Amino acid sequence: METILIAAAVVAGLGLIFGIGLSIASILLKAKVNELEQQLLDVLPGANCGACSFPGCAEYAKALATGKVKTTLCPVGGEEGVKKISAVLGVEVSKTVKKVAFVQCQGTPEHTKKAMEYKGIDSCYASALLCRGEGECTYGCNGFGDCVRVCSYDAIHVIDGVAKVDCKKCTGCTLCVTACPKKIITMVYAGDYAKNACKNTDKGALTRKVCKIGCIACGKCVKACPVEAITVIDNKAVVDLDKCICCGECIKVCPTNSLVI
Q1: Among 162, 170, 192, 261, which residue is least crowded by beta carbons within 10 Å?
Q2: What does the alpha-carbon distance between residue 51 and residue 100 come to, in Å, rounded to a whole number?
Q3: Cβ proximity of 241 and 188 under 8 Å
Q4: Global confidence as pTM
Q5: Which CATH class is domain 192-261?
Q6: Measured between alpha carbons, how far is 154 from 29 in angstroms, rounded to an integer?
Q7: What's residue 116's pLDDT?
Q8: Which of 123, 59, 128, 67 is nearest to 92 (CA)?
Q9: Domain 97-190 falls in which CATH fold?
């Protein structure tokens, strides 16, 4: 009995010693918290989406503290976020232009047809690997909602087989852009800028066969634009949003309605 008590006392003593030692070590080895980094982290949204090109908000805060990166890299924080960051850093507030996700496809059943019936995992990525999707247009939205599943802001939904973005809810985090295997989601300036809602780069005659509302590269929009903001590249009208003045003249002359606001 005495031996058991001695053994228990030894174990308890060792535990106490090790516990005290670990406590002291944690204090001595504790990393010093950079107050500026913490202040910056406190004003960041905490989404950790990576849209700023850093792994998370903590890393962006660390980079901001060095004064070597832009204060406008966080799309989730938006204009208010830039103001808060600038206030912490004591710098002038930089102008921000909000960007939102835009789906380059309008291939609903009304405008295009199915080429096949896909039977498999309800995933755009899986269907794209197998057959590039059900539709006759191989450039179109697969409609299984991979983009919907990664959106934390309920800003994108699949309607009539095509993903649609709610610009009022979109924070511009770009996660849906990354999730889309067909690469038909892109980032555009928020506002009434002209955009081509078609990703098809086939010749016009081929595009017409698979979609009633696809871009046929007719060039009418190019001629109608008063500021030369539109060019036809790879059989598709491309709008330079930095030049676009939101006049809507190109929308009026588009014969297939592939250009939208």
Answers
A1: 261
A2: 12
A3: yes
A4: 0.77
A5: alpha beta
A6: 43
A7: 86
A8: 67
A9: Alpha-Beta Plaits (3.30.70)
